[in-house]
Design a protein that fits this description.
Strand content: 15-25%
Strand order of the largest sheet: 5-4-3-8-7-6
Radius of gyration: 24 Å
CATH architecture of the largest domain: 2-Layer Sandwich
Structural class: alpha+beta
Helix content: 40-55%
Largest sheet: 6 strands, antiparallel
Shape: elongated
CATH superfamily of the largest domain: GAF domain
Order of helices and strands: HHHEEHEEEHHHEEEH
Number of strands: 8
Length: 271
């Protein structure tokens, strides 16, 4: 067998290049891709013929995707179209793309001015998720990465968002045990609520070594048209580089940047 030849199964069919791929899941995703790409409702026969999958198998994939609400089945016409969960995910992706596009110039300007790492984050499952980042051009910088999840109570990004959340939403996030990321993480509720009140008054939050030893972070909220916090932007740096003058200048610049991003998204700022 040549190096380029693919190994064969007992039935003679070529095995997938990646042995970890779950073939039924892959085929179901191809069904979803086909239906979503059509732009109109399709029948079972349409899908089976185009993908060359037996009708009985295609039917199971379509029904499973419908049950998960990625597809919608019009029983009267026996046609399948895009479902509400697929539309929700597409809308979230579009919103994130818009957020990143509008925030990028502001982040670039802030990074150029302070030469420190600038972060952009949203909330998912009660934690902040870094969705964009411009790293400082210095050897000593912070360790967060795009896609990482951090607690809201220990980050300036999270505190900035928590400060503007409706009380019930905020309390739900803070109801469980609060993890001590470092020895300086504020987990006592009265002290944390005091921090959030200050953050609301100033339109920015500050944390010093609460999420990472040796680090300091300042975060400002990004809001929608009713003042609801949909994201936050922050500057993070080693504590040793953040003197009082830099903190004051960075806080002011962050608030202005958050306001510009909010307004670019149709939001209302200041809150």
């Amino acid at each position: 067998m040549s190096a380029a030849a693919k190994p064969k199964t007992a039935a003679g069919a070529a095995r997938p290049a990646n042995a970890y791929v779950v073939q039924p899941v892959l085929k179901a995703l191809r069904v979803l891709e086909l239906v979503a790409g059509k732009g109109h409702e399709v029948s079972l026969t349409d899908v089976a013929n185009e993908l060359k999958i037996p009708k009985t198998t295609t039917f199971r994939y379509l029904q499973t995707l419908t049950e998960a609400r990625f597809l919608r089945h019009d029983a009267a016409r026996d046609r399948y179209g895009v479902g509400p969960r697929f539309r929700t995910l597409a809308a979230v992706d579009t919103s994130l793309q818009s957020l990143r596009t509008i925030a990028r110039p502001v982040m670039t300007e802030l990074c150029g001015k302070f030469n420190e790492t600038i972060n952009l984050a949203v909330v998912a499952d009660g934690r902040v998720v870094y969705v964009d980042m411009i790293a400082a051009n210095r050897s000593l910088r912070m360790q967060a990465r795009i896609g990482e999840h951090h607690p809201m109570h220990s980050t300036a990004l999270g505190k900035a968002i928590l400060a503007l959340l409706p009380e019930k939403e905020r309390d739900a996030i803070l109801a469980g045990p609060l993890v001590e990321m470092t020895s300086r993480t504020v987990v006592e509720r009265p002290a944390l609520l005091h921090q959030l009140r200050r953050a609301r008054e100033r339109c920015y939050a500050v944390e010093t070594e609460e999420n990472e030893d040796g680090a300091m972070c300042i975060g400002a909220p990004i809001v929608d048209n009713i003042g609801y916090p949909i994201a936050a932007i922050s500057i993070s740096a080693p504590k040793s580089r953040m003197n009082r003058d830099i903190v004051a200048s960075a806080s002011s610049a962050l608030v202005a940047g958050a306001a510009a991003i909010s307004q670019g998204l149709g939001g209302r700022f200041p809150v």
